[in-house]
Amino acid sequence: MMIEEKKYGAKALESAELLGWENPSQERDYDIEISFPEFTCLCPRSGYPDFATIHIHYTPDKKIVELKALKLYLNSFRDRAISHEASTNLIFEELNALLSPKRLEVTGDFNVRGNVKTVIKVQL
Fold this sequence. Notes:
The mean pLDDT is 94. The chain has helices spanning 8-14, 67-75, 84-99; strands at residues 20-22, 32-42, 49-59, 63-65, 103-113, 116-123. It is flat. The protein is built from 3 helices and 6 strands, in the order H-E-E-E-E-H-H-E-E. Strands 2-3-5-6 form a 4-stranded antiparallel β-sheet, covered by helices on one side. The chain has a two-stranded antiparallel ribbon with strand order 1-4. By secondary structure, it is an alpha+beta fold. The chain has a single domain (18-123), classed as GTP Cyclohydrolase I, domain 2.
């Protein structure tokens, strides 16, 4: 029996964590909008995949999010059994804790499944 070695992407997801770095323009307020159209997680009830676009809109204070770390963090949800509401709120909470932004909004715009469309919006 041959054991398949994990691909580099799967290995990267095992240690995925959000990272922030210094805001290069702290002297002014400006908005950052990030769209992640390939978000997936698993329905905790059925185990079927849920697909969404995650929208992040924030006004930074001292820190901004590092984009590659954000991509890996969001991809780490793909095999996780978590509801639409829980995933959107968790993303919001962890970004807020890391960045302490002046303003933050996270929207989980989930694809239709079973003839139901869900949009979760969490804001500060």
